[in-house]
Amino acid sequence: MDQKNLRWAAIGTAFALFAAVDLLILLLTPAQERGISLWLPPAISGLVVLITLPSLLQIFEKQQESIERQRREIATLHAMDTAIASEMELGSVLSVAVREATQALDGEHGGILLYGKAAGRAEAFHNVPPDQKKAFRALVRRDRPDEAWEVARVALRRGDEVLGHLAVAKRRPCAPFAPADTTLLTDLTATVVVAVKNARALEAARHLASVEQELVRERRVVQALQEGLLPDIPTGAGSFLFSKLYEAQSDEAEVGGDIYDLFPLGPDRWGVMIADVSGKGLAAARKTAMVKYSLRSFARQHASPGDVAALLNEALFDEPDLTGFVTMVYGVLSDDGGFTYASAGHETPLLRRAAGGVEALAPTGVVLGADRDQRYDEVTVCLLPGDGLLLYTDGLSEVRSGDRQFLEVDGVARMLDECRDVPAGELPAALLSTVSQWAGGRLSDDAALLWVERSADADCPGASAPPT
After folding, report:
1. 173 and 255 together in one domain
2. Is there a domain that residue 375 lies in?
3. pLDDT at 71 > cutoff 60
4. More confident residue, 140 or 271
5. Based on CB atoms within 10 Å of each CB, which residue in 42, 188, 296, 433 is the most buried?
6. Is the pLDDT of residue 463 over 50?
7. Same domain for 325 and 373?
8. 464 within some domain
9. Which of 343, 368, 370, 398 is nearest to 277 (CA)?
10. Which residue among 44, 62, 86 closes a domain?
11. Of 194 and 366, which is predicted with more confidence?
12. Domain boundary among 55, 86, 117
């Protein structure tokens, strides 16, 4: 009902009251006295109208204001409920909240800020010019009087934690905000907190879905790289038998930084390599690919394993994007039983003699990538008929038992000696099973094993003594 209709209703009510009073007076006046008192009822009725009309108008206006305020409150809360039902994006929900709050309180400007730990950081403004947002942001955040603005401000709370603030402002001079205005804002904040929670949950779900998609993509790429980085080496060549095993412990990617390789270098000569690249997944796969293919290239140009290791070290040092270190054993195996190798900080190779005992081969240098000018010595040993050489990564030697004791190289050597009756093709699997049982189950890190066994009689060239 508008103001014009409100006034007419009040006037009509006043005249109805006037007529009722006039009629009552006439009825109460004795018949013999009515002639002299005809002027009295209209005068009394007019006086009553003059007295009651302002009060009636005021009553109607207050009632109308109350009805209009309730209508605005219901419309505002309904708009927020609709926004939550139809909008899950945090920015859209905040924009609706600040717009509806500003209109409901008949304000000029509105702002909402989120900065609590549980809500994250977000904001929305209504009718605030871009060049005034900084000042209005401070007005929303700080609870202090302002000479230029009348401000209604409430906190957004979840339990005892303050997630942010919602404020509506109008420029002075103006009527102050009523307590009912603050109550409406407080009711509105409860809806906003629910909206923030829903929007953040949606963002988290989307992020999780994105991460899962990325992991699936990485897993597929890594699986494809595995076929090239961990080749299916032959079971035998010349007078040697070969077998290998790779055991991945990561559920997110099937390739870590462990790698082995066996490739021909010429008549009756083969390059044998095992390495451990720091890291997992695509980053490790990229570096592993460089190690594998760079080593093959250097090995075909240089006969000395020490020179090959030095060149690979220099190449890794000159690649700043490939962070981390690489440990490696690379050697050249000849059909007469000779094995000349260079070791770069890797787990000690183990030479199991057919006549009995297991020898740990000496290291010849530090890890690759630590020092650009590093040089690597080399050692030659002879594999007699029935001798076997085990190359492996630290996933084997660094397993722990139930009482948290490391297996270490001596433990691997002991278990390798216990597997003498196992055929060459089955030895890596048998050895890994023995180690796993000792550790009480699954290994804690990826493990790669490469087994080389001499199967024919041959003379062995003189072996050099290990460097001191």
Report:
1. no
2. yes
3. yes
4. 271
5. 188
6. no
7. yes
8. no
9. 368
10. 86
11. 366
12. 86
Is residue 460 assigned to a domain?
no
Using CA atoms, how far apart are residues 280 and 247, in angstroms rounded to an integer?
14
Supply the range of the domain harboring residue 166. Answer: 87-229
Q: What is the pLDDT of residues 190-244, one digit of tens each?
A: 777 777 777 777 777 777 777 777 767 766 766 666 666 777 788 988 889 999 9
Arithmetic mean of pLDDT, 445-454: 91
The count of domains in the chain is: 3
- Would you say residue 459 lies in a domain? no
Give percent above pLDDT 70 in the chain. Answer: 71
Kindly state whether residues 348 and 279 are assigned to the same domain: yes
**How far apart (Å, rounded) are the C-alpha atoms in residues 436 and 395?**
11
Q: Tell me, what's the pLDDT at 462?
A: 44
